[in-house]
Amino acid sequence: MEYAAALVGKIPYYDFETKKPIFIEKEKVQQVVSELVKEGKFAEAKELVEASKRDYLRELERSLAPKLLSVRISFPLWVKLYALALKYENSPSAVLRRLLINATENLVEDLNKSGVVDPRAYRLIRKSLNNLKELQERKTFDEDEVGRKYMLIYEHEEPIGISDLKHIHYFLKHLVKAYARQENIPEELVDLLFEKNVVSDFETPEAFFYTYIGVFKDDNGIFLRIGPEVNTLDFRYVVFEYPIKAIQEFPAELVLKFHRMILFDAFVNCPSVIEKIRKKLEVGEALTLEDYKSIFCGKFEKEIETLFREGIKPFIYPEEGKEFVHARFLPYCFEDYPLPLFKMDFSERELRMNGIILKKKASKNELNENFERLKNIVKDAYYEAVRLSEEKVMEAKAKVECGEIDENVLEVLSVAKGIDVFLEYLLYRQEGGKDLLSAFSKPSEVFTTTFPKPLVRILELLSGKTIKEILEGLILEEQL
Cα–Cα distance between 240 and 208 in angstroms, integer? Predict the structure, then answer.
């Protein structure tokens, strides 16, 4: 009420009987005081007299410094807030502040046009809003290997069990071969990369499965992406042995083409290194640490040095005290080739994406149906990529039951099981025993921005809504 009093240039008084705020013009204060005295409301009259002596505009000016404001945004609008942050290439905090600035501007302009707001208060608030527009924040989006900007909204990582590793490894090799064929890259080169999978005692997650959900931005707009990054390859082999074998057994142009396809850094930005390495190998000269670093064109230098000096020991993260090679250090990426991008459509309580409707409060049956839709979408994408079908799998199983076991049957069943295990990690094995959809569609998320407390209270008072309700309405109105 005190902030609003400064805005309209009047004296605030709260009527406890009607439970309504009243704003009294200064020249009418004495009249209202006299009426309260006649009604025997001496304490109320005294409070009003004291209020009339205060300079609410000056008090407002002193309190207009931006303060931290935390707001809990409900699902699905917290997802849309991330999408808006990516649209404007800023942070969720900056988007929230921009929405509040716009709402406050609209309010004070309407009040000014109607003659309600005091001119001095109008100028004061306009100045405060202009200062808020000048605030800069650190951008919170990243950029992937193909130049798309993105913000992750969910991620989970866990070690791959030793019983699952070979099937996932075999499926991934098959998946890469499917895409290599499209580029006329021989399968033998893919086999060379996949020659060694992780050898580990599995006390540390050297073989791990990293699942993420992110909001991505490209030339076609904003979309949701579900994907994995999976390590089943022996990291030491990939860094030190594979690149050498590749340039010895295959033409340089073919090796570079393959590396570009799988986003593998070896030689891609420094092809001249190939000839340097070949000449050393021809004369039997040993390769040095600096040679191995040069193969990756200046990337992963710390990790390469650690592996070179420590043997098969995994990289150590000093800040966490854990020993493992994190996904962002993998010098290759190919696992999410066929997965679709989900266009998003928001309402107050629903997020629609490719036929999947995620609700703010969904029934158990709806949750199960959504998960089955997602599972089928992902499974169909992988089956299509590796030219597999349910009919082929059923035929292979039938042959096994009849004792007709040959190489083709084992190939079909190995790839099919690899996909099933892969889907288990991607969709089911999330933190807390949740499936992927329920893990990322949590009921709400808290965001923090900076905004003057008086302006927040004025918005709440004059709209009759909480700041959470105001912001969720503004987020919903924004176009992606």
Answer: 20
pLDDT in tens, 418-476: 999 999 999 999 988 899 999 999 999 999 999 999 999 999 988 889 999 999 999 99
Rounded Cα gap, residues 46 and 255, in angstroms:
88
Per-residue b or e along 202-218, where b marks 16 or more CB atoms closer than 10 Å to that residue's CB: eebbbbbbbbbbbbbbe
Q: What is the pTM of this model?
A: 0.87
Alpha carbons 96 and 472: distance in angstroms, whole number = 10
Q: Residue 180 in contact with residue 201, Cβ under 8 Å?
A: no
3-state secondary structure the chain: CHHHHHHHCCEEEEECCCCEEEEECHHHHHHHHHHHHHCCCHHHHHHHHHHHCCCHHHHHHHCCCCEEEEEEEECCHHHHHHHHHHHCCCCHHHHHHHHHHHHHHHHHHHHHHCCCCCHHHHHHHHHHHHHHHCCCCCCCCEECCCCCEEEEEEEEEEECCHHHHHHHHHHHHHHHHHHHHHCCCCHHHHHHHCCCECCCCCCCCCCEEEEEEEEEEECCEEEEEEEEEEECECHHHHHHHHHHHHHHHCCHHHHHHHHHHCCCCCCCCCCHHHHHHHHHHHCCCCCCHHHHHHHCCCCCHHHHHHHHHHCCCCCEECCCCEECCCHHHCCCCCCCCCCCEEECEECCCEEEECCEEEECCCCHHHHHHHHHHHHHHHHHHHHHHCCCCHHHHHHHHHHHHCCCCCHHHHHHHHHHHHHHHHHHHHHHCCHHHCCHHHHHCCCEEEEEEEECHHHHHHHHHHHCCCHHHHHHHHHHHCCC
Closest CA to 212 of 261, 150, 260, 300: 150
Which candidate, 477, 469, 440, places its Cα nearest to that of 76?
440
Sequence-separated (6 or more) residues with CB below 8 Å from residue 279: none
Handedness of CA 315, 319, 320, 321 (dihedral sign): positive
Backbone angles phi, psi at 45, to 5 degrees: -65, -40
**12 band by pLDDT with thresholds 50, 70 and 90:** very high
Average pLDDT over residues 139-163: 89
